[in-house]
Amino acid sequence: MAQETSRIKNSLFNITTGIGYQILVMIISFAIRTIFIYCLGKTYLGINGLFSNILSILSFAELGIGQAIIFSLYKPIAEGDEERMLSLMTLFGKVYRIIFCIVLGLGLCLMPFLPDIINDYDSIPDLNIIYLMYVFSSASTYLFAYKSIFLTACQKNFIATIYNAAFYIATSILKVITLLIFKDFILYLFVEISFVLIQNIFVAHKVNKIFPFLKRKNVQRLKKEDLAKIKKDVYALVLYKLGAISLNSTDNILISKFVGIIAVGIYSNYVIIISSVSGFLGTIFANLTASIGHLNATESDDRKYFMFRVINFSTFWLYSYAAICVYILIGPFIGNCWLGDSFLLDNSTVLIICLNIYIVAMLYAPSQFRQTMGLFVQGKYRPLISAILNIIISIILGKYYGLAGVLWGTAITRLTTNGWYDPLIVYRKIGISPWKYYWDYTSKFALMLIVGAFCSWLSSFFQINNIFKWILAGVLLSVIINLLYVAIYRKTEEYKYLKNVVLTIFSKLRSKVSRNLTPKTHQ
């Protein structure tokens, strides 16, 4: 019980700081994106989205080592074994410096192929310089990444979050000044790259200060069996990484090829909204990863199964609500409150964008439990199949249906590969029939579609043509969706557990506020 209380306390603190950071990022991102569009236009917006996608593919060089680091650190952190932590971190530091060189080299090798990816390549000035800046920015993050990963494993994400927030504000102010005064994309990138590099150095320095043993020079070599285990896990994670890259980082490249760079720019406006919503909600779940790792290291299979159901239920509730709201509200927001009708996508494209929000989110619990249980080798070739399928289906559908076809290809691939296999190996590990999961997934998906159709029908009765009506619509949708879910799930164990957790949190917060406000008496 004490361990679970500690896990919940650490998770809540990380979640609180993470949510605050996401709100900050969301507000500033919209401001910068608006200024960016008016100063530089749709073309550079598309370049930003495309090159970010290309460099996400280069992150394949990381080989999933980050996940192997976190998993291998859980036990020595729980036991307070500084020697083993130091040995692991020293190894990973060397590996990440090698990754820096590999990403830099691969980025340079891809440069001659840019004209084949961008169908209006010749009309964009200084494209090679811009690409090189993106490559360096992406590669440099690996010089210090393992330090931030150590904070995650120790459930101290809030430290990195505080630094991220401070540097994000400073960078954003300078980027806005650069856009308004110089209207120069290269200078804009220089500001961004410089601050990201400085930020990573500061975080690394802070980690060394908090954990001074990480600076020791007399490092013990890892045992051969430990190295063999890490290599085995990394080999399996390479394939998972390949599958993830294919699903998450190829869409903009295919859209650029089949539709054009401007379409990438218009789609990226939707992506930034989706990323803001997903990032806000994802903060809650991302900060549970280390807690799930400790849960799987210490608790019984029955407890693991129950907490899996609780987390999966939470994911469904929050992300189905988000997907429905985004489907109804994103068009009026972009068209009437932000950029104008010329930046709108058709309804079928918006539908698949929102379905992808839900499909991706519902992979969270199976994926995190698989990783934190150390189930890297099981099904290691499935991500390779997923990568191949995604490219084939997305190309075929992209040729006939354009942007929507590319996104449908990704959704179909997720459902037919990751969507069923990760739950299978997790449920087998804890001795439960996976058919329970499949039935639960199907019923929840059907419920989301029914509630979404009902809310969409209701929204057709009023016009959202300004920001005040948009906010009102958002409030009404929130009330309707959540009341429906309460009515449906109020008697389930998962709902009762979450209700008790929320009530306990609010009770503790109220008590703390009350103590702070009560005048102290002096003897």
Summarize this entry quickly:
The protein is mainly alpha-helical and 523 residues long. Helices cover 82% and strands 0% of the residues. The chain has one domain (2-503).
What does this structure look like?
With 523 residues, this protein is mainly alpha-helical. The protein has one domain. Helix content is 82%, strand content 0%. It is built from 21 helices and no strands. The longest helix is centred in the first third of the chain and has 39 residues, at 2-40. It is globular, with a radius of gyration of 24 Å. It starts with a helix and ends in a 6-residue tail after the last helix. The mean pLDDT is 81.
List keywords for this structure.
globular
Q: Determine the fraction of residues in helical runs and give it as a percent range.
A: over 70%
- Count of DSSP-assigned helices: 21
CA radius of gyration is: 24 Å
The biggest sheet, with number of strands, parallel, antiparallel or mixed sense and barrel status, is: none
Order of helices and strands: HHHHHHHHHHHHHHHHHHHHH
How many beta-strand segments? 0
Number of domains: 1
The low-confidence parts are none
Secondary structure elements and pairings:
Blueprint: H1 2-40, H2 42-58, H3 65-79, H4 82-110, H5 114-117, H6 127-140, H7 145-153, H8 157-182, H9 185-210, H10 224-248, H11 251-258, H12 261-286, H13 289-298, H14 301-338, H15 347-361, H16 364-372, H17 382-416, H18 418-429, H19 435-459, H20 467-489, H21 493-517
Helix pairs in contact: 1-8, 1-12, 1-13, 2-6, 2-11, 2-12, 3-4, 3-7, 3-10, 3-13, 4-6, 4-7, 6-9, 7-9, 8-9, 10-17, 11-12, 11-17, 12-14, 12-15, 13-16, 14-15, 14-16, 14-19, 14-20, 14-21, 15-17, 16-18, 17-18
